[in-house]
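dude i think i finally got it to work??
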Amino acid sequence: MDILGFVNYLLTLPAPPWLTWVGALGGFMAVINFCFNLRNEQRKRKNSVVDDFWYRKIVAPFLIDPYFEFLVTQLTAFEALSAKKGATAFHSYLKEFRVDKRKIRVRLSFYRAIDSKINAALGETLRNLEDKITLYCADKTNFGVVPADEAVTLEMVKNEFEFSVSNSMILLRNSHKKIASA
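look at this
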């Protein structure tokens, strides 16, 4: 018997019943796989629109970049201030800080439309930073009596700047993840 005859012989044998189930299970798995891939492709396309358009073209340039630029600029100005003496320098810095902070808060108010909790947390971060700077400047200028338990050192303010940057990065990253997965 040659090979072709043997194959013909095998094709004439009745198929075992489990083979039908294996074929049906294979077909079912193919349909599930197709649906899963289709869903993933739609999610990727949606995330691409959210990430590319909203975050890279609108949110980052208008809200996030100026916010971090504000923090970096203020840290640089604060470090330069710490070397200066005299109440006028501290008063000028504090006045400029508050003006710039108001501008940033106006920009961040637009973030409320995206995520109100993150907007509130970023506002709280800025308030904490302003409190530390105000106490430091008040102490240096003898403008107000700062209780000993509220005294703020230069290192404490620098640490608050660092915390503000890292905390803000975490908040914004989590917000982006939340929006992208929605």
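The helical segments are 3-12, 17-81, 87-109, 116-141, 154-181.
im so relieved honestly
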